[in-house]
Every structure is written in C-alpha cells, then in structure tokens.
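sanity check both lines:
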Amino acid sequence: MQLAAAQLSNHLSKGLRSLYTLHGDETLLVQEAADAIRAEARKQGFTERSSFTVAGAHFDWGEVLAAAGSMSLFADKQIIEIRIPSGKPGKDGSVQLQQLAAQAAENTDTLTLVMLPKLDKMSKQGAWFTALDGNGVNIEIQPVERAALPQWIAQRLQAQGQQVAAGVEGQQTLQFFTDRVEGNLLAAFQEIQKLALLHPKGELSLAQVESAVLNVARYDVFKLSESVLAGHPARVQRMLDGLQAEGVAEVLVHWAISEDIRALKRVKDAMSNGKPLPMALREQRVWGVKERLFERVLPQLSSAALVDLLDGAHKVDGIVKGLKQRDWPQDSWQALHRLAMQLCQACMTQAR
C-alpha cells in the first residue's frame, strides 16, 4: 500500500502495520518518518530493536531471517530494521526480501522497517519491491523543492513557537532563509533549531535571522539548469558561485548548460520541420520540470538565438579544456558565468 509522507501521522493514529518501506534521498525526512513509526511501535510494546545494513554482495541474509523469525528474548514484540544504502539488494536479497514480506503479513509480533534511497522506475517494478509494497506500507519521501521551502521553514518555526513578521518583511525573511539553506534540508533544520536556542518564542525579525542563519546552501548542476531555463539570473549567479566554492568540476557545469542548449536547438529544429512541440519534446526525452520550462520558452525563442548560444557553448568547451577563445574570458568559471547568463537572459526575455 502506497502512503504519502504527509499522511503517516494520521495513518499511525489508526493502527500500526507490521511492514514499512521508506525510500528517498532526503535524510532528515526519512529519519523523521522512521522515528514516528518507532515511537508508535514503542507505545504498542515493541521494545526490542535489531538493525542490519546490507552492504556488499556477501551480506548474510540468514541473520535477518533468523531475527525476524525468532521470538524476542526480553520483550513480546520486536522491531527489525533493514537499511539498503545502495537501493540494490541483489539476487539473493531479492528472494529474502520477498520471504520477509510474506512473513511480515503473518507475524504481528515483529515490525519490519526497510529503508532505501530514492529508487528508479525499474527498481520499483522489481519483484522484491512489489512484495514489500503488497504486504505492507510503502512511503516515498519526496524532497522539499525550492518553491516549497519557505513554507516548510515557516511551518518548522511555528512548531517551535516562532514565526516571521507579517507582510513584506516576513516574506523577505523567509526568502533570505531559503537562499541560505537551499539544497541542504538537514542543515536547514539545524539552523531552525538554533533560532529556538538564540531567541524566545514569538516573532523573529529579519535582522535576527540574518545574524543567526549560516550559509549552508548546497547546489547541484541539475538545479542550476532549471534556474537558467526559468530565467532567474540572481539565483543562477548564486548557484554558480556556490558550485565553484564547493569545487564542482567546470566540465560538469558546462555539460549541464550546453546539453540544455543542444536540446533546445534539436526541439526547435523539429518544430521547424512541422512536428508539434509535445511530440518533439518526447522524441528528445524532455519531461518533468524541463518539459514545462521548454514549453514556455521555445515557441518564441528564435533559431538564430539558439545558433549563437550553441556557438558560445562550443567556445566555452574549449576554454574549460584550456584553449583560448577570442572575445571570451579565459578563466573557466568566468566563461561559464557568461554562457549561463546568456541562456538565462534569453529564457527570461521569452518569459515576459
């Protein structure tokens, strides 16, 4: 049974199942979901806990099966936790997980909790995951995206008795907070907790947040790509500076930007040859957030502009590899900034 993370609290209030599967890359939210399940289990007498981490091809699943099939020595009920950091249990693990899932449906004295990273489509279609889903509760932990982060911060502050000012100042406070912690939810939570230690319950001013919240934001090239296509130059500048400070390879940043330019050009060419935009996007394997961004900017983005951007991408490719290019900065990061801003400006113009 699939369950949204937001529904977990209400679900637990109605009764505890004997098998839960948590999967997602947001460590904080996975941990909080697991803690909620453990807390409810303790209330119902599950006082003993065994934990196993599946690492490597030679993991001994016999210990897990033995623990799951045995009675607790010190309590009537027990919790068996299985962590699979790779998300790949292997052939033997697949068989054992299917067996564990079948046993869990019959053994109400053992609560089995399986924790996995974000899973791809193929893994979710595997026999082992199907068995876990069919015999228990499956909760996919979704990340908190940038657009939802201000509200998430506000809710967490409210939970500890604090809130930002009303109106424009409050919006500015949440925006500042978001800029400082984007991409690093665990650190964001720690910064929120720090505010509870530094200031009493009640309203927080922008000055108080500015003086307390550290810059712990973490960026990746895929989010950079989305920001460029969305036409957000200030955020693109901040993300590029962050990626440079974190030591991300210039070639990876260039790949992300130039791949978007090439994809835009291919889809535009297909449209010029008479193909509808949705069909062209499907053929170029553009979907999700990128699909919506492409749909917004492509109809009015000229082929000539894309040719110029493609030429710029070729030149920056040479600069990143140590070659000099006329009329371009010779520093790799400066050249990447210029290329990203050119694409961002083109997308921003089309968005107006």
